[in-house]
Specification:
Strands 1-2 form a two-stranded parallel sheet. The protein has 96 residues and is an alpha+beta fold. The protein has three helices and two strands, in the order αβαβα.
Length: 96
């Protein structure tokens, strides 16, 4: 949800928590949503903190996703981007 939607919802009926994708791969909520949750006293629950399986090591260059799997249409998992992202993952794994 966007910030306007969250504000409207919270004004109509107090919201206790929201859930949004948030991981090392997708940190978008840091810019607006997390600060807004803090302002309104709303909890933030990260969805897919392991990058929809990417940070678990379960995905490699040969991985193909089943029809309907959201990862099949996300640019970060496209074959032309996956090799670059896997190289970044290797760097993360090597850090002490």
């Amino acid at each position: 949800m966007g910030p306007k939607t969250l504000r409207r919802a919270h004004a109509a009926l107090p919201v206790s928590a929201v859930q949004n994708e948030y991981s090392m791969l997708w940190r978008g909520p840091e810019a607006v949503i997390i600060p807004l949750c803090q302002e309104l006293g709303i909890g933030f629950v990260p969805w897919s903190p392991l990058g929809v399986g990417f940070l678990t090591g379960a995905i490699d260059a040969k991985t193909r996703f089943a029809p309907g799997d959201i990862r099949g249409v996300e640019p970060r998992f496209a074959p032309e981007n996956l090799s670059h992202n896997l190289a970044l993952l290797e760097r993360v794994k090597r850090r002490p």
